[in-house]
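Changelog note: in this version the structure field was regenerated for every chain. One regenerated record is shown below for reference.
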Amino acid sequence: MTANNEVNPREQRGQDIAKNPDTIRRLDQTHYQVRSQTKFQGWYDVIATESGWKCTCADHKFRQVCCKHIHAVEFSIKIREQIKNKNTVTISPISISECLYCKSENITKDGLRHNKYGDIQKFYCKSCNKYFTINIGFEKMKHDPRGITTAMQLYFSGESLRNVSKSLRLLGMDVTHQTVYNWIKKYTNLMQEYLDKITPQVGDIWRADEIYMKIRGDMKYLFAMMDDESRFLIAQEVADTKHTHDATSLFRKGKEVTQTKPAILITDGLKSYQDAYYKEFHTRAQPRTTHIRNITIKGEKNNNKMERVNGEIRDREKVMRGLKKKDTVILEGYKLFHNYIRPHMSLEGQTPADKVGIKIEGDNKWITLIQNAQHRI
């Protein structure tokens, strides 16, 4: 706005441009392209620098003003943030609000029930005079919920099953490595079933890549798709081969999980990605997904972010000494850990879930997720 409260014409044109998603491309967090509104019909680069946004259009270069293309990018970012904040899903620890027997809300905490493996909160109902305990998600488990979730945290942080078992003995929990695996299998399946019902608000740039790994001694390939802005792993699948694998199911699953499709898809030059792109993302009508191929590590539009995620999986595989089967729950469990539990330095200590509008509260996010998953079955 100007001093006399009149609308800045460049700002107004920027708002009009931002209303049409086909006119703005987001290449990454610092690089956008805005379609020319003249007969030139090209694209201007709008790039973030230490001194602010810079645009390659003549209006900005020669007049040194904040052009309509920069205003368009700024409004586009605001619109995206408003949509994401509006659709944020908050998952909080389950609080006990009513009696297990008479459903009265006239209840109070009444100390702890002590057992060999930990303490469980006791409740007293003033309406029916009964005591009860609720251990959501860990019913009939003889071990403490914090011990179980500590085991999962240790394993997905890089410890082997046997090392996790040894560490738990320091907490007074005498369990075998097979028991630890059973916990991982049970709770990964439980949490994933619940989380699959929540739609992540991902960005408009996705990356796909593949990594080789051994499963029962045979070479296999893990194909994975990730959101560029949040590092959120959208989908993954194990393939027997690299060059003949059909990635269509990976792309289709990505659309099902996010309920959308990307504006830009970044992959290497593998033909499988190109074929899947034409089947799942390419359309004659706008908006149309742009496919960027033949990526090199040092290129401008490289796949370094995806390579770093692959490195995480490679480190995890070394500890596992090879996977046992293609549909192992371990890979799904690691994806869950990566997305919802592990804070990332590149995201300023947030998790990918935080960045896609899924906020998990509580000191122990494992317990929060398990409680909510069990509570909503």
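Spot check on this record: Residues 193 and 373 are 8 Å apart (CA to CA). The two ends are 52 Å apart (CA to CA).
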